[in-house]
């Protein structure tokens, strides 16, 4: 399925936007990249700083193997080339939150080479976005400007925290594509467990590179907007920057290659500094760190540790469980949802399309609807997967009708009780007693003789009226299938 091409309508014609993203993802690890200091979010300022992080004289970096392992696993998850030989470089610049006076990164020989990520767009279209590289580097500290009226303070808790910089190719052509790419990348990272993807806490953020050109012409000059920490803001940066650059070019000006900042309150970007090139940072190999060489055993262990990834899980749900493409996409988008659903399926003790369809529909309709209403997410669900499986089982064996199941579910949400207990204690069991149902049908027909005559006279749509009245008279406990069969006989 094709999708309409995104274009910016300028005064002099159409323009195309070209987008590349550099996503900085904090590696899941209890220690920093080159020291044993903790990485827990929210700690008091400067309480998670080793002598290495503070760049005390004579301190030498020691590489954290777990950080390398997580970056390699991430590369494997996007089918990227893993470089068995890589090297760390020093990126030299001076800033108050960078105590060493340089950042240890990987410019020339990154750990991970080219890979790709397939994204789903509105309308069912898909697109493959290329990943140029993933390299590992240490984070800088943080300046705090609101602690004193005339001074800025420095918090070095983040100094030395391990980051994966995931650099895309300039393959995106719309804000929607960029948003889909970041969401998909975040999903993969969280499945792999290499980053928690918490953009609000800064453990995943993006530098947004934007340029514009006439369709088919060479790339234009790009700007880079730093440290954008939500998908919505990334899309807003692209829209604003693309329009701003078109206005500049159409007025006869030139786009300046520079670094910019995004103001979320105003929804616009502003100049931060002129864009530096690699030579401005005086990169050179870090003399304190040997080149990194990966063994076959290490790579094998990394690959074997990978979980089933979202695309593979989605395809399995569709093929083996008969789940619709939409439901499968929703259930696999977030790793917590997929885990909850897997536990639900396991608790039913059954496999195949019948249980798969019923379970997926219940999760997406009933459970998600309740969680949205309660303002909770699936990790905080008041109903467990085991309880959900028990409820589905009661529907499957005829103990509960769909209507009764909804009543039982609401009671489960309020009380936390198991569905079987609720059914027994509150008498909510569905009845298939034909004698009892026939008696109620006779009463309904006697009370509505005019409608019986109308139905028998050809008004077939009145059948639903009789079903509703019968179910109402039996408090929703009658088996709908039995009611339908007996009504057809009674009404002739």
UniProtKB/TrEMBL annotation:
<keyword id="KW-0808">Transferase</keyword>
<protein>
    <recommendedName>
        <fullName>Aspartyl/glutamyl-tRNA(Asn/Gln) amidotransferase subunit B</fullName>
        <ecNumber>6.3.5.-</ecNumber>
    </recommendedName>
</protein>
<dbReference type="InterPro" id="IPR003789">
    <property type="entry name" value="Asn/Gln_tRNA_amidoTrase-B-like"/>
</dbReference>
<dbReference type="GO" id="GO:0005524">
    <property type="term" value="F:ATP binding"/>
</dbReference>
<comment type="subunit">
    <text>Heterotrimer of A, B and C subunits.</text>
</comment>
<keyword id="KW-0436">Ligase</keyword>
<comment type="function">
    <text>Allows the formation of correctly charged Asn-tRNA(Asn) or Gln-tRNA(Gln) through the transamidation of misacylated Asp-tRNA(Asn) or Glu-tRNA(Gln) in organisms which lack either or both of asparaginyl-tRNA or glutaminyl-tRNA synthetases. The reaction takes place in the presence of glutamine and ATP through an activated phospho-Asp-tRNA(Asn) or phospho-Glu-tRNA(Gln).</text>
</comment>
<dbReference type="InterPro" id="IPR014746">
    <property type="entry name" value="Gln_synth/guanido_kin_cat_dom"/>
</dbReference>
<dbReference type="Pfam" id="PF02934">
    <property type="entry name" value="GatB_N"/>
</dbReference>
<dbReference type="InterPro" id="IPR017958">
    <property type="entry name" value="Gln-tRNA_amidoTrfase_suB_CS"/>
</dbReference>
<feature type="domain" description="Asn/Gln amidotransferase">
    <location>
        <begin position="339"/>
        <end position="491"/>
    </location>
</feature>
<dbReference type="GO" id="GO:0006412">
    <property type="term" value="P:translation"/>
</dbReference>
<keyword id="KW-0067">ATP-binding</keyword>
<dbReference type="GO" id="GO:0016740">
    <property type="term" value="F:transferase activity"/>
</dbReference>
<dbReference type="InterPro" id="IPR042114">
    <property type="entry name" value="GatB_C_1"/>
</dbReference>
<keyword id="KW-0547">Nucleotide-binding</keyword>
<dbReference type="InterPro" id="IPR017959">
    <property type="entry name" value="Asn/Gln-tRNA_amidoTrfase_suB/E"/>
</dbReference>
<dbReference type="InterPro" id="IPR018027">
    <property type="entry name" value="Asn/Gln_amidotransferase"/>
</dbReference>
<dbReference type="InterPro" id="IPR023168">
    <property type="entry name" value="GatB_Yqey_C_2"/>
</dbReference>
<dbReference type="Pfam" id="PF02637">
    <property type="entry name" value="GatB_Yqey"/>
</dbReference>
<dbReference type="GO" id="GO:0050567">
    <property type="term" value="F:glutaminyl-tRNA synthase (glutamine-hydrolyzing) activity"/>
</dbReference>
<dbReference type="InterPro" id="IPR006075">
    <property type="entry name" value="Asn/Gln-tRNA_Trfase_suB/E_cat"/>
</dbReference>
<dbReference type="InterPro" id="IPR004413">
    <property type="entry name" value="GatB"/>
</dbReference>
<keyword id="KW-0648">Protein biosynthesis</keyword>
<dbReference type="GO" id="GO:0070681">
    <property type="term" value="P:glutaminyl-tRNAGln biosynthesis via transamidation"/>
</dbReference>
<comment type="similarity">
    <text>Belongs to the GatB/GatE family. GatB subfamily.</text>
</comment>
